[in-house]
Amino acid sequence: MTVLKVLMISLILLTFCSKLSATAITEIKAFDGVKAWLVEEHSIPFVTLEIRFKGGATLDRVGKRGSVYFMSALLNEGADDLDASAFAMEMERLAVELDFNVYQDSLSISFKFLTENKNDSINLLKKALTKPRFDQEPIERVRDQVLSILKSNAKDPRKIASKVFFENVFGSHPYGSMKDGNLQSVLSLNREDILNAYHDVFNRNQIFISAVGDITPKELRDLLNEVVEEIPANPVKITDQVIYKLPGGNTVIDFDTPQSVTIFGHGGIKRTDKDFFSAYVLTHILGGSGFGSRLMTELREKNGLTYGVSAYLASWEKADLILGQFASSNNTVMEAISIVRKEWAALAERGVTADELQDAKTFLTGAYPLRFDGNSRIARILVGMQSQGLPIDYIRTRNAKVNSVTIEDIKRVSTRILKEKNLYFVIVGRPTS
Prior knowledge:
The protein has 16 helices and 11 strands. It is α+β, with helices and mostly antiparallel strands. The protein folds into 2 domains: 23-228, 2-Layer Sandwich (Cytochrome Bc1 Complex, Chain A, domain 1); 249-429, CATH 3.30.830.10. The chain has a 6-stranded mixed sheet with strand order 1-2-6-3-5-4, sandwiched between helices. A hairpin with a 5-residue loop joins β1 (26-29) and β2. The two termini are 35 Å apart.
């Protein structure tokens, strides 16, 4: 990293840190102990609300894979007295944005509304969350859309690589299959399955909420009381923890393409582990953003084997991995894999240099404030902090944790978590060697 880049990032850091220091996060307590984090911003007359339910696609019932994903796609297809068409017209009239996204561990709801339309907008949100219709016509229409996505994914080498990797790593655990299900499971889902998925996910005991924008603490509390009260509080369904046990090696999936797509990884480290931040800095040096990482330097800059390569920590609710990916020509992909293994082992054995560590700290602390560039992103960050159990002052203390990492910390954690012999690669293509 050049001196000019370091100075530019430092200037950005100072500017944004001053904004963050002035950002007051207020905790709001509402019905039945439900809490929300609020950042007031009254300069623009709209509000971003982020709601997250823990569980997500892992709550699919046995034999009903993809039901939570399917259900989420129907939540803005009609509610209460509004069918799909009327619901869409009401969203347009109020100029609201309502998006639902499902992940393996959560279902998230992003809602934006104008302050002047607050009451009608909240009423629409309440209908969507508490009285979805799940009419048969939208069910069949959305089913066709999901089936089309699945058929497209079956021809995408990156999707194929992910599917095979996680199937082999996690087996019958929910993490071992794709959240959107498969052709057989989606074809078999009926309205009762969708209702079951809705009741399994929408649980007041698993809810996290944040709000950013033109709203006061009292207004947010009233909003939450109105919406959350009708969401039932059910016993929490426990999904088993899964331990990574797959031995290292390669799996090749034959696919007619000039480039082989490769996904690789092995077991990782928990978000709550005392060495997490050391591991976070370590994986950035190994395969983080930009052209300064070890893997990018060796694979692209020195050997021209790929356009891009990455490695990162994946800390999920029930499993922890270090994952990476790249694409390379069929006649060079095995050479690239050999270099990945070599760099993995070298970093575990020798650690990093002082310059590498300082550059990583400069980048990670300088880039962090750039995440807070809008109400929506701030709201997502806040709800993510809550769901991970992070303290309300984490935004202010996070960079200090990065800066506290020493070369000795990196050496200790690299020896602990980087296991070259455990690396497992899925290669989709036609490698020639």
